[in-house]
Amino acid sequence: MRAGWREVVPGEALRGLHGAESAVVLTPDHCSEVSLVVRGADAAVTAAGVFADIAQGSGSDRPWFLSRQEPGARRRARRRSGALENRHDSRTDTRREAVMKDLKLTGTRPDHGRSVVEIAGVRVGEGLVVIAGPCSVENEEQTVRTAVAVKEAGAAMLRGGAFKPRTSPYAFQGLGLKGLKILEKARRETGLPIVTEVIDTRDVSWVGEYADVLQIGARNMQNFSLLREAGKSGRAVLLKRGMHSTLEEWLNCAEYILAEGNGQVLLCERGIRTFETYTRNTLDLSMIPAVHATSHLPILIDPSHGTGVLGMVEPMSLAAVAAGADGLEIEVHIDPQRAMSDKEQQLDPPAFARLMDRLRRLRAFMDGLDGDEGAGGKA
Ligand code: PEP
Ligand code: MN
What predicted TM-score, i.e. pTM, was given to this entire model? Predict the structure, then answer.
């Protein structure tokens, strides 16, 4: 029997599938997969406990086997096979080849496997990972209270800038070391891994002592010395897309980090400059399938900087998840009106909690769609 599988009796009520969204039973010859009917999809998604029955008999008296699947595993497998189909479409191939021509390490793998980046126990590239927190670390109370609130709502990591890249040299530049110490305290209190930006090559190694993930911001995407330093740091790196950069340029920047032996890279689309002025940037959600077709790295979406408009954060987050994003980075502030940077776009904790709830329900719905495809090939 394959590792991870256990024998079950058809009709047996299966208990204890905590956190599983779906389970698959294989017939003894392992050639046909039969979906289980999982009662209470919501309960499954919220890991409250799942009770499942085997829906169909095997038609034989040989035993059936059950494997608990990780949340979202079947849906991801389908989504990837969709990306795979795109890869084999000759009309797409020319574009893909052009983007991937210089990529030795970040391009899609021969086995089409996708990277899962593990950060202090959080696995990015499987399911949906939400990073949330204030634009800037302003003081201990603001950061710790925000951290507690986002954790309660279901965020997996805390973001917060201690070094802020600001348009004006007179604007708040961040608390620096003091800010990093506050983030350390927030991590101690909540257990959330920390994502924080580094803007100077000279700071990479010591900022890495406080950060679980080093963020390289849009303005520094092509700062090649910073990329190399971050590559050497041994820390995971969240690399934002430059606001004037193409997919090819962005992936080549990730290549700089991987070329230093650091494969722990997350890409983050945060909007690009277009002629539109209603939004702060134009959030390019087409990068989600584009990255999935050209690279094995996880792709996150930042709807906060991507729109700069409070009321657009929720719809664009939902759209990103519908398009297959591996995660989101969202700005949340305990008291957005008083924020020292980006006050127009930061959610307050109740709005964030509502968004998280809607994201969970959207994912459950999408899993249902994928389940229908699995059963009949039709949506
Ligand atoms: C940020 O995330 O704090 C930030 C400054 O973002 P960006 O680099 O995308 O502007
Ligand atoms: Mn910001």
Answer: 0.79
